[in-house]
């Protein structure tokens, strides 16, 4: 199976076998060009500011297309953790309220809610079974005092993909909102803003841009009245109004969560990377990673590795994890051979994106066979 893009489109990819996209992607050559364009535009003074705004708008529009929403629903922050914390501080949780999470969540989806326990907020943790959590198991923990359910679309740990559409349909019959962390899915499988109240993501993983960007998408169907607990000049309607020393009005769309300027070098890079992703097509990328993931699962099972990730295509995405008690050491051994995977937490994780091919899969499986023989001798 061939890659969907030439390796020459990336910096350094021709010297490595990159299964590290769940941590961070290889840098696009277009990222370098985009950052240089930002620097050149900065030298143009007022004209540069106008050009920055145009790139920002184009990036916001691309994200809206990927989320099947509108650009007014998109806020551009510094990282996904900031976005989750902004939502956690804005929904006005009170003593006796509860939040439902699960034990496959990345810490950024857990810590903001734990910080509210001292204020009397209960944090309910759903225990995973066989490295996955179902929509039904989350819903079983929801009651009349549940204000928020938090889950990743795709688990960083196991690679399991949750049926967020089903989960949201059921939650809309309650007072509980849904925050979906799409950090491990946006850019590699379809993500729909209408399947959650809030969606967050990071810029440097599957979106293939640089560090310093966080996406916050807000579905106005149930969350239009949510207001930030902090304000900045970019979050208000008229920062120079005659009454600016007396009161202000937040912007009516998602930009009310943007306090000041975004990281423009990152936005230039993300505009370039989302242009590329959209030109290839998210559905086409999804088909590619699911088929290649099946190859990897079969190859790893053949040499004795147990998948943590569901084998059914609709229950996974780009992250494929395998049980490996000494995962860090095996990842280090693979690194010596020029293959990048994530090792730790009792697992090896290989993240497949549009730049991977069948040769990459065969190389990873073959290298692990060699490492096993070396360890046994």
UniProtKB/TrEMBL annotation:
<dbReference type="InterPro" id="IPR015421">
    <property type="entry name" value="PyrdxlP-dep_Trfase_major"/>
</dbReference>
<protein>
    <submittedName>
        <fullName>Aminotransferase class V-fold PLP-dependent enzyme</fullName>
    </submittedName>
</protein>
<dbReference type="GO" id="GO:0008483">
    <property type="term" value="F:transaminase activity"/>
</dbReference>
<dbReference type="Pfam" id="PF00266">
    <property type="entry name" value="Aminotran_5"/>
</dbReference>
<dbReference type="InterPro" id="IPR015422">
    <property type="entry name" value="PyrdxlP-dep_Trfase_small"/>
</dbReference>
<dbReference type="InterPro" id="IPR015424">
    <property type="entry name" value="PyrdxlP-dep_Trfase"/>
</dbReference>
<keyword id="KW-0032">Aminotransferase</keyword>
<dbReference type="InterPro" id="IPR000192">
    <property type="entry name" value="Aminotrans_V_dom"/>
</dbReference>
<keyword id="KW-0808">Transferase</keyword>
<feature type="domain" description="Aminotransferase class V">
    <location>
        <begin position="47"/>
        <end position="364"/>
    </location>
</feature>
């Amino acid at each position: 199976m061939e890659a969907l893009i030439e390796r020459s489109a990336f910096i350094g990819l021709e010297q490595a076998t990159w299964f590290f996209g769940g941590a961070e992607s290889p840098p696009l050559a277009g990222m370098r060009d985009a950052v240089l364009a930002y620097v050149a535009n900065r030298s143009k003074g007022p004209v540069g500011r106008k050009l920055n705004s145009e790139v920002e708008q184009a990036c916001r529009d691309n994200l809206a297309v990927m989320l099947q929403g509108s650009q007014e629903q998109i806020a551009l922050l510094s990282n996904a953790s900031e976005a989750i914390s902004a939502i956690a501080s804005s929904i006005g949780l009170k003593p006796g309220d509860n939040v439902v999470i699960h034990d496959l969540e990345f810490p950024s989806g857990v810590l903001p809610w734990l910080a509210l326990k001292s204020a009397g907020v209960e944090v309910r943790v759903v225990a995973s079974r066989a490295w996955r959590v179902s929509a039904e198991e989350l819903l079983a923990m929801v009651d009349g005092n549940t204000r928020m359910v938090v889950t990743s679309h795709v688990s960083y740990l196991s690679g399991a993909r949750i049926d967020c559409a089903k989960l949201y349909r059921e939650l809309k019959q309650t007072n509980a909102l849904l925050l979906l962390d799409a950090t491990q899915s946006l850019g590699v499988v379809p993500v729909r803003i209408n399947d959650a109240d809030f969606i967050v993501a990071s810029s440097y993983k599957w979106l293939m841009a640089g560090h310093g960007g966080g996406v916050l998408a807000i579905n106005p169907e149930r969350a239009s009245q949510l207001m930030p607990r902090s304000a900045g000049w970019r979050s208000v309607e008229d920062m120079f109004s005659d009454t600016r020393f007396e009161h202000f009005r937040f912007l009516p769309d998602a930009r009310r969560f943007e306090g000041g300027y975004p990281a423009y070098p990152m936005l230039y890079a993300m505009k370039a990377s989302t242009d590329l992703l959209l030109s290839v097509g998210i559905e086409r990328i999804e088909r590619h990673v699911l088929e290649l993931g099946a190859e990897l699962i079969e190859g790893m099972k053949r040499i004795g590795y147990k998948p943590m990730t569901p084998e059914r295509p609709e229950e996974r995405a780009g992250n494929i994890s395998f049980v490996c008690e000494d995962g860090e050491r095996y990842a280090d051994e693979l690194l010596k051979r020029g293959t990048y995977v994530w090792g730790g937490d009792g697992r090896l994780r290989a993240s497949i994106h549009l730049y991977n091919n069948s040769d990459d899969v065969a190389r990873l499986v073959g290298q692990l066979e060699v490492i096993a023989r070396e360890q046994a001798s």
